[in-house]
């Protein structure tokens, strides 16, 4: 589904990514982990088109998208969420989700504002689809609530719903469990499993190692911009290089969670 080939990104004298490569299988959950500053967010930015790499290539479904501008990445079936919640605070929940459908809409602004013809039909279709997505993420009952009235965990779900609205095949989630309590994290894990069962491919940057170990089919570990290890959760957890560089004492607690 996704091939990251020999990606390098330099910020002045710092190599944020250094010849990093990995592959993500279709319909899998793939986690990207590593210490602070390892290059995880930079890698997400390269994949999603926010950051142009100095070297290397990104392929989605075999197509080279390295030079595809940010605003055209949705058209190749990719969506992402960000580390910090970025919702429109003046809108309700469903309006936020409907914004995510923008790349798939055709009616022009005049038809949409007047609410006639194609504009009206499209708005109805968009509204119906977003209600389905809200039901999928467990937020149908708050569809018309102001988004600011929702708990932190639910706001994160709205972000995921908005990303799903563009009907992606590949979803990039940057620290989706950050700031969540244990019960919200468990609910999130269940949601991600449901999405994978629906055929979606998920790439997740996450610091919560218990969450990552339970959820992922494969894990790539970054360290100083390089791929330190890449493989099944068990193999990665037991890799001495990963334990030395990153897991340290948390390896023991991860064993319990596996
Ligand atoms: N725009 C930038 N300009 C200069 N340096 C940057 C920039 N963005 C990231 N860096 C540096 O690149 C390195 C990788 O940063 P990045 O945010 O990708 O790491 P990370 O693994 O996501 O870290 P964290 O887990 O703390 O979010 C860090 O040393 C960071 O300070």
UniProtKB/TrEMBL annotation:
Domain ABC transporter, chain residue ranges per copy: 2-249
GO cellular component: plasma membrane
InterPro entries from the UniProt entry: AAA+_ATPase, ABC_AA/LPS_Transport, ABC_transporter-like_ATP-bd, BCA_ABC_TP_C, P-loop_NTPase
Entry GO MF terms: ATP binding; ATP hydrolysis activity
Keyword ATP-binding tagged: yes
Pfam family, one: BCA_ABC_TP_C
Keywords annotated in UniProt: ATP-binding, Nucleotide-binding, Transport
SUPFAM superfamilies documented for this protein: P-loop containing nucleoside triphosphate hydrolases (SSF52540)
Protein name per its UniProtKB record: ABC transporter ATP-binding protein
Lineage summary: Bacteria, Pseudomonadati, Pseudomonadota, Alphaproteobacteria, Hyphomicrobiales
């Amino acid at each position: 589904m996704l091939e990251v080939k020999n990606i390098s990104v330099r910020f002045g004298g710092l190599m944020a990514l250094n010849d990093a490569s990995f592959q993500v299988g279709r319909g899998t959950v793939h986690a990207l982990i590593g210490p602070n500053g390892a290059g995880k967010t930079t890698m997400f930015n390269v994949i999603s088109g926010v950051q142009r790499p100095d070297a290397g290539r990104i392929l989605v479904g075999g197509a080279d998208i390295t030079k595809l501008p940010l605003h055209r990445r949705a058209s190749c079936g990719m969506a992402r969420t960000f580390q910090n919640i970025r919702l429109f605070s003046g809108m309700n929940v469903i309006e936020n989700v409907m914004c995510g459908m923008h790349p798939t809409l055709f009616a022009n602004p005049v038809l949409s504002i007047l609410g006639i013809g194609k504009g009206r039909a499209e708005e109805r279709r968009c509204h119906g689809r977003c209600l389905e997505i809200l039901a999928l993420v467990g937020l149908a009952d708050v569809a018309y609530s102001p988004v600011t009235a929702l708990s932190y965990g639910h706001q994160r779900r709205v972000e995921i719903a908005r990303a799903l609205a563009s009907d992606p095949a590949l979803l990039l989630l940057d620290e989706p469990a950050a700031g969540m309590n244990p019960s919200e994290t468990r609910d999130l894990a269940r949601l991600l499993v449901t999405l994978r069962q629906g055929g979606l491919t998920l790439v997740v940057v996450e610091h919560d190692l218990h969450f990552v170990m339970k959820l992922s089919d494969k894990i790539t570990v970054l360290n100083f911009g390089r791929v330190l290890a890449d493989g099944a959760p068990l193999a990665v957890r037991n890799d001495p290089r990963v334990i030395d560089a990153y897991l340290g004492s948390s390896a023991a607690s991860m064993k319990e969670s596996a």
